[in-house]
User: Fold this.
Amino acid sequence: MSLDLNLVALLPVLAPAVAAVLVLVLDIAWPPARATHLVVVGLGLLGGAVATVPGLLQGRGERVAALCLPDGTCLYQASSLTSGLQLLALLSGVVVLVLAWDDWSHGEGGRTAVIAALVLGATAGVVAVPAAGDLGTLLVALELATLPTAALVALERRASRQPAAVDGAVALLTTSLVSFALLALGAALWVVATGTAVLSGDAVAVAAADPARLSLLTLAAVLALAGMAFKVSAVPFHAWTPLTYHGAPLPVTTYLATVSKVAALGGVVVIVTALSGASGTSLLAVAVMAALSMTVGNAVALVQTDTVRLLAWSTVAQGGWVLLPLADLSSRGTRAAGGYLAVYAVATLLAFVVVVAVGARRGVLLTDHRGLLRDSPLLGLPLAFALLALAGLPPAVVGLVAKVVALRPVAGDGTWWLAVVAALNVALGIAVYLRWLRVLAQHPEPVDALAAAEAEAQTRSTAHTAVPARHTALIAVLTTLLVAGSVAPVGIF
Amino acid sequence: MTSLQWPDLPDLPALPPLPDFPGAAAQYVVAIPLLAALLAFLLGRTSSRTAAWTVVTGAVLTLGAATWQLYTISVGVVPRVSETVGPLALGELTVPLTLSASPLTAITAVAVALVALVVQVYARWYLWYDPRYRQFAATVSLFSGAMLLVVLSGDVVLTLVGWEVMGWCSYLLVGHISAKASARRAAAKALLVTRFADLGFVLGLVALTAGPGSTAIADIVDHWRAEPGTALTVAMLLVIMGVAGKSALVPFQDWLPDAMEGPTPASALIHAATMVAAGTVVLAQLFPLLQASDPARTTLAVLASATTLLAALLAFAQPDLKRLLAWSTVSQVALMLAALTAIPVGEGPDTAVLHLVSHALFKALLFLALGWLAVLAGGTLVSYAVSGVRRYGSVRRPLGIGLLALAGVPPLVGFVSKELILGSAEAGVQAATPGPALIVLAAVGAGAPLTAAYCMRAWLILSRPVLVRGNGRTGEQLDDFFAEPEVMVEAVGVEEAEAAISSPARAGITTLSLLTVVGGVLPLTPFFDVELHLNVPLLVASLLLMAAAALFVLAASRGVRTRDAAARLPAVLNLAAERGLGADTAYLTLVARPTMALARGVTWLDREVLDGYVRAAGRAARLLGRGGERWSPVQPAPSLVLVLAGVLVLAVIGVVLR
Assistant:
């Protein structure tokens, strides 16, 4: 049996994977190197990002294919949407790398190399998921995307936070293992129902014609989606999210909240695209998950007092929004979900970068952000803009457009109960982010003279812990992206 | 009854053809004042002089354009239709937004433009020291532009635009002296009362438009004339409600006397040619529809007749001469509307429009002259104005001419227009449906002596001989504690005071006086197509009644120091008249208080009931959040249970409920 490799098409996946091998070789050859590892990570990620460009430029219906079998089925297929998701994941990875540079380049023997290899491995998995053409590739890629992150969570440098980090890692690991079991079960049932491990629309259409096989196929799809839903943090598979987000180092949390989400959505899109071969089916399970995620995520986010936990729960809610258009099982739905994810990822990255920057000076509690808009508008304004984009309020028009685009397939489908739940959650979401915005806009008033003196001392000490230039650059780039998207929200959706 | 026929006049010589200007005259007439208002507002920010030049130039050009239009109408095609901003695309509704000029609207436009010009010139003098003169001048210009739009409108949408702009401008003009609480209240009252009535106007116009599916007045008239009925009656009644509001008919009459709180030029503009007369203009445009609906016609006849009599009675008892003029406006405008209902079917609204023009001339004259006197004498209360024309001789002629015209004394313009109304009402009584005409005839017949009476009263007060010290009675006077102080004639001071008015303003007043005197020839011009129903016995009888009323007032004024015949009335009546028979209180109790109570009720409902749900939603969301926070697992094990339970539920949902 001959396999058409087409390695050029595989470059987005290969670049980070090869970089991971390079890092490990480098570590053996020259142990004291630290920053060099991170440079290699950056190069690997950027190389992958550049390699997505041909995929991005192709038209609707075209595919960049690799690993093709003689019968013409390919185990790696990248549409323009897939390439967009890959690019999003790789660039988000770069942002996380820049954000974590200090944290990762410090540390005793080999830690940097391990982290670098883990990040590259996980990212290679993330990039491979949306392009998976068969169930085997999907399973392997998804595991590759998940397991290294559990190790990343556990690799907390500060001793005081290590127990929480280990708790978070265990929660993530156990959930991912159970989910993998479900996914494997779903994959097995899928093979039984369609008779092939290849995710092909034709096979699904044949299976859907037979009522008994259709039930089996639906069950398989539900199990597979449930197996991947934990990565989107969809309710009821969300329980690990607050634990892990809170316990992990902030850059890793950022990674989980953005890059990992791409893998999750990519997997769901792969399954949904295959299912769309069976016309007339819709997945109530996805709709229920979306509705539950939004409602529970927003409601719990409303009572949080810690910015990281608030962002964690907001991730749950936004996961619901990403799943929302997929309930329709159409290509329009998958594009809407991809666009929404892009907006969400940029806004969440920006929020996390600011939270990291503020966390270094003040803390991560909501009260630590009091008066940020007046104290340091260069941090406060971008954060406010990111929160507005997440809430979907002008002037962050891009968030509003994303929500409208996500709602359109639902409204077009006539699933009114879901549209009503989504509309209620728009209001609830606004309440969540306005709570934070209000804190940002408050007057930074010291309670008494002592606090004033303390504040002054803190101001003097912040001279030393001024925002690093890297963070400022990240904030500038991400804000520019959001503002540009708000001025002309075209091309994203 | 004998009826005289109008002698056949030789046709006027044909006018020479006109030079071609781009666009129709009507476009200039409407655009120039609006543009002048905008320019005055923009350029006049810092300089009253610039603002004055802008608005006066605008007014002169407007008058020129209106005169030019009159000229083109007399030689050209009638009606002359012209475009404004092009038709609006509103689906099935045709909205051509055209202007339409006929001889009647053209002559009305000239009258409006003339009064506006005189008022602008006068206002420059009257408000010389007013820091807000610029805003006033721009508003007056906008106001007159809106009125001209209504006059020349060929589309009810444009009519509505002009109508509403006038309403808002009247608010600004009446409340110009905004430091005065009474002026603010009067402005708000004028706005609220007329806007309340405008509800009917808008609904009526919408109903009229719904028939032909077009907002062009010509289409509306054609459509409804072909199918009169209940729908037309309802629509016309609604329009009449709006007209009653702007023209201050019962029961909306009380805003108008209060509007005297505005500066005198504003009063002259609002009362003479613009806002109050707008109702007459609109109904004249819809005249065939008014004639096609007898219930609407009768309703208007009853309202207008009641108003003209009531207002004439109230005018007689006012202690302030400016308020006397205000009530006389109510009475005279009601007379125009009454005339519309009395005209026999088949004839045009010419007599009503003639009275509109005639009233515009003499009422503007009266207001401006009285404002002049007020500046000299310090006020328009009877106690200030007494002997006014004796002490300040220069106001004697304008006030005298104005009052004579108002009373309807031949051969002034007021006499001509009123006698024509009387004649057409008398002819209407002979027609098939004499109801409205009969009512109007009675009202006009009774109104003429009443008008003569209050004019006589005003004149007696104004022309009372001055008590001059040393005119031979000093010996009788023992003390000046119980007697009226006698006036020292200070000739130099009087001359200086009289000279204080600017010469252009004085020229404007003189022009109005002249036109009031010679305006009687207006019905002979080709612009009016008056069917003359001259009933000589009726005419003589009405003149005799007027003379008798005047003599009665003269007799009653004897023995009163101020020669005020109304002082013979019981104090209760005087007070009641001054308060407009308690209409203000009635507005408050019948409309304002219930509305406010309703509003408070709705606010309560909103706050306590509807907001309750909103607050509960907020609390519910927080409770849900706390619950979610408490019940979300903090250990890996329970979270796995959650995952498996979730899968089970989803699988059931997915497979069973698919």
In short: The mean pLDDT of chain B is 86. The first helix of chain B runs from residue 25 to 43.
